[in-house]
Amino acid sequence: MGRTAVALTALFDLVVLLLLPAAVVVESATDSLDVQALGVLYASLNSPSQLSGWTPSGGDPCGDSWKGVSCSGSSVTAVQLSGLGLNGSLGYLLSDLLSLKTLDLSNNDIRETIPYQLPPNLTYLNLAGNNLSGNLPYSISAMASLNYLDLSFNNFTGDLPNSFGSLSNLLSLYLQNNQLTGPVNVLSNLSLSNLNIANNQFNGWIPQEFSSISDLEIGGNFFSNSLAPHPPPYMPPPPSRQHSTHNNTQESPNTPQGSEGKSISPDNASNKKKLTTGPLIGIVLGSTLGALCITLAVILLLRNVPKGKDHSINSRNDTGRSAVGGADKANEKEMQELRVKSSSATTPVPPSDTVIVEKLHGKNVPVKRPKIPITATSYTVASLQVATNSFSQDCLVGEGSLGRVYRAEFPNGKVLAVKKIDSAAISLQEEDNFLEAVSNMSRLRHPNIVPLSGYCVEHGQRILVHEYIGNGTLHDMLHFADYSSKRLSWNARVRVALGTARALEYLHEVCLPSVVHKNFKSTNILLDEELNPHLSDCGLAALTPNTERQVSTEVVGSFGYSAPEFAMSGVYTIKSDVYSFGVVMLELLTGRKPLDSSRVRSEQSLVRWATPQLHDIDALSKMVDTSLNGMYPAKSLSRFADIIALCVQPEPEFRPPMSEVVQQLVRLVQRASAVKRRSGDELGFSYRVPEQDSSMTDISF
Fold first, then answer.
1. Partner of 322 at 20 to 30 A CA spacing, among 77, 396, 416, 587?
2. Cα 128 from Cα 213, distance rounded (Å)
């Protein structure tokens, strides 16, 4: 038995030695999700030769030491590719890099926008010095662990998303040298040590909290001349703010203080006696006298400051991390302290809340000024008449219930779309809301929304000026024979659905308050030369708040887009937009109009005809637009139909939010792309390939 045991032990050791190399190989293999995500990134960057080891599919980034890739075990933890002359875009699969902590693609030539799909566990993100554009995606806020973010020296536009305020771990933020607009209040509650927002188009007050940031750069913007005024004294903290339960609790700026200036901690708050009227009056009077003394002292101090000197904080030409000379730093700190002191002693005079505007009937009367400034350009009627040849029929490109749309070409060569609103379309009561609506519309910033460029309120006219997108509408592309040469492939149709879904997601879930479109249809989806969708008429519903039924029949043009609850009661919500979106997806799938009286009665209503067949794979294949010539992936078609079925449910509460629709469409794209990269008979595509086009180069889903 002893010899047998020894022999077995030796045999076991031999087996272990033989299997050990194989085990090491298995452990070094990179996680499949990471491999796929890096493959998509590589392809989106146009497969650059300078990325040695990288491949668009397969491979082992960790085991084969791909350039710039660092790993821990089988997980990719860092991608550092700075200054390599990379171009292209960032792809759509970065969110699958679940273990990625560092992503540095700075100082390249990467273009387009930052995708919504971002690595969720990043702590360091550097995209500075590229050619990225568009809005900053609110999905950046999903990276809760992020402590370093550098997006400087790009071409970003629009306001900062409100969701940026949730980046509680962010310490360094660099946004300088972009074209960002709006206020920066969303950054006021972040615990930042370094902030550079210089050379943008930010406006409004400089938040008081910025005075505590050790490294601050804000020059080259349109801020007011001082920090925001302090809140009134002794204002209790808002209900949502909870005091820290730690023993060394930091004093809140709004925490009431006693005569010794000690904050009230949660431990002794319950035992502290209420202040009587006498001591309270004494505290108020004492504080008032103290404030007056400080005011006089600051006024005397300001009189001694030399005039004509620039007290703004200078911007830097690097990414915010270069050292500043000791003398410059001291001078900057001194000026910052002076700014804080002066702002606490002065209160700006608020602007007038009325503006004189000529009414439709010719009488000049005050109209309520919008609560937020109008960022769009104000045009004169004369300039618009010149640009449209006096609103001639030759320049007419469209017409809706609010008025006609004209193509306008300006002397500088710029082409815009001008919507001339009919006087009968706006009631006298709604005229006062026009500037408010224009103000709100001018702040909508999304790559898939047609931006408002300008407006005109002159000589009784109400005119809106938008960016001109001249490749036709989705409705034209799907239903008019004149556009037969521009037939949409399945690839393009999925892109249109995803782009317009993201536009509605932005209106419903990013804008505060939410914006309900109320007129979502294929004629309001404009396509550019690359067939990217741009949703128009966003915010126009605010100009017709009491004419929903008229909008339903005249603006929509047919009853086919309207949700059941609106048709029955006139109630319209964001879930009604979701229903209309589902109808547009049906148009994309079938190539049919929402209502078509030329068909047999049972097929006239697209939703009623198509809904029962969406889960029948055989019936579904017969519903597909014949202009596709059978060139579509069967699995992608089925998933597309599943999303439609969710959106067009008769009960509003069962329809998904648009963020969920976006996620499902993104997954559809990701899965289809992953399937396409497989080889052999696992492709999963079922095509009927016409003889004249066997290459099918346009199919990617």
1. 77
2. 21
Alpha-carbon span 623 to 523, nearest angstrom: 22
- Residue by residue, DSSP assigns 142-211 as G-TT--EEE--SSEEEEEPPGGGGG-TT--EEE--SSEEEE--GGGTTS--SEEE--SSEEEEEEPGGGG
Tell me 141's DSSP state: G
- State whether the Cα torsion 544-547-551-552 is positive or negative: positive
Q: How far, in Å, are 78, 327, 653 from residue 323 at the CA level?
A: 26, 12, 56
Among the listed residues 112, 91, 134, 114, the one whose alpha carbon sits nearest the alpha carbon of residue 446: 134
Give the per-residue SS3 of 584-603. HHHHHHHCCCCECCCCCHHH
What pLDDT is recorded for position 244?
Answer: 37
* CB crowding 294-317: b at 16 or more within 10 Å, else e: eeeebeeeeeeeeeeeeeebebbe
DSSP letter for each residue of 459-500: TTEEEEEEE---S-BHHHHHH-GGGGGGPPPHHHHHHHHHHH
Q: Would you say how long the chain is, in residues? A: 701
d(CA 681, CA 674): 14
In 3D space, the residue among 594, 643, 649, 647 whose CA is nearest the CA of residue 620 turns out to be 643
Output phi, psi for 406, to 5 deg: -120, 150
Rg (CA), the chain: 31
CA triple 398-402-406, angle to 5 deg: 30
**CA 657 from centroid of its chain's CA atoms:** 16
Residues 6+ positions from 28 with CB-CB distance below 8 Å? 60, 62, 63, 74
**Amino acid (1-letter code) at residue 41:** L
Question: What domains are there in the chain, each with its CATH number?
Answer: 34-131 (3.80.10.10), 135-232+330-347 (3.80.10.10), 354-467 (3.30.200.20), 474-693 (1.10.510.10)
Buried b (16+ CB within 10 A) or exposed e, 378-410: ebebeebeebbeebeeebeebebbbbbbbbbee
- Whole-prediction pTM: 0.50
Residue type, 237: P
Write down the pLDDT at residue 57: 81
**β-strands 69-72, 75-80 pairing:** antiparallel
Give the C-alpha separation, 102 to 107, whole Å. 16
Distance of alpha carbon 123 from alpha carbon 77, whole angstroms? 10
